[in-house]
Amino acid sequence: MTEDYSVIIVGAGMAGLCAALEAGINNAKVLVLEKEPAIGGSSLLSGRFMAFAGTDLQKKNNLIDSTEQLIRDMLEVGQGKNEKHLVEAYGQHQLDTYNWLVDKGVEFDAVRAASGHSVPRGHTIIPIQAITTLYNKCIETGNVTFTLEASVKRLRKNTEGRISVVMYEKDGLEYFAKAIHGVLLTCGGFSKSEEMLQHFAPQLNAALRIGGKGNVGDGIKLAWEHGAWVRDLPYLQGTYGFHPTASGEKKSQAHVFYKGAIIVNKLGRRFVNESISYKLIGTEALKQPDNISYQIWDQNIMNESVPGDALYDFDNLFALGLIEKADTLEELANIIKVPEKNLKETVSQYNQGIQNGTDKEFGRSTLTHTFGEPKSISQAPFYAMVTTTAMLATYAGLAVNAAAQVLNAFDEPIEGLYAAGEIVGGFHGAGYMTGSSLGKAAIFGRIAARSASVAPIRIKENLSI
Fold this sequence. Notes:
Layout: E1 3-10, H1 14-24, E2 30-34, E3 49-51, H2 56-60, H3 67-77, H4 84-104, E4 110-112, E5 122-124, H5 127-141, E6 144-148, E7 151-157, E8 163-170, E9 173-185, H6 194-200, E10 208-209, H7 218-224, E11 230-231, E12 239-242, E13 262-265, H8 278-285, E14 293-298, H9 299-302, H10 314-319, E15 324-326, H11 329-336, H12 340-356, E16 382-391, E17 397-398, E18 405-407, E19 413-419, H13 436-454
Parallel strand pairs: 1-2, 1-9, 2-6, 9-19, 10-16
Antiparallel strand pairs: 3-5, 4-5, 7-8, 8-9, 11-17, 12-16, 13-14, 14-16, 15-16, 18-19
Helix pairs in contact: 1-5, 1-13, 3-4, 4-13, 11-12
Protein name: Flavocytochrome c
Domain FAD-dependent oxidoreductase 2 FAD-binding: 7-438
Keywords: FAD, Flavoprotein, Oxidoreductase
């Protein structure tokens, strides 16, 4: 027997939950299939940031931001390789989605500057609080059914050529469910698929693998069978900032470089402008001798530690023994086994550039993107953290339009098939703005649900930027 639903959603992370809630509160009958034994997926491994502009939280902190500025930054960070219409759709719906999340009980406790921000716009959440809140709201609608440990195996079309039937397995049995209006793929990327990573990103062989357990690319394969196109595969990059001991359960991550640290290789030499996207930094770090690099900073920068923050809680990493400390640069160099002379010269040249207002080596003029002023590294004691690149999320995948419809190779919608979240390509382009991953999951999850079951989404054309 095949049970009928208005919408079937595959994956229960941020995108899937926002889609389910949007559809559920609009009286759609929704089935959410999640192959893992718990909801949340890789959203629970996120750095806690969601990128929004013009919010009450920004205004409370006297931060002036706008949708237009957000769009400009995203296109600039993406080096113009992003699909502009997707970025504009994000911009059109971002503030409404922020307010919607707040209204539903998601808590944002701070706003911080991070990669790609010209204004601090990283609105911080506690992932488990956000995921649990959205799940509970879905249940409250009375319209959303969750089935866990249900692995979707194939999608099937009806006689009219529309994706309408989902075949899945649970407890060793095979089930079928029918989606009257649409199937939404929100089941993540392929950061844990060695087969797909070898095919599409062999340059990342040395990167840690710490993505979500279920992110093996099965959603992309489900759509491929029906002619789906993909985007952004040439721009697959790892995420820089992890200690080598990091894992999915223990992230051990710090972006001290966005607070003023420099990054050196095992020769004690800088190799990159530390203010650029941590995706681009990660790519350069993997080219260094033995793939080893270090963040180097002083006490003034250490004082920027933010308790509990996923990226900036340096004191916690120090307490865990993951950060080295020394009274002099010579001593620090000996601890991390880089040439004393080189490290001292590197720091001296960098400090001289700060004093002169010009970083002649790499042109660093900000802390991150266009925000903040670089700082000298001169106040003892000094600190170092060995840092590596990790494959945390793939940020490449299915081609979609601004209504979240999955497209074929001719940019035509595949009827009945929608996608949102990490599984989608085309949005980020060649770079990545911190917070835009969770941001696009929430925004396009809602768009997909409305496109499929509630009302057509209309995107403003030629949004001024």
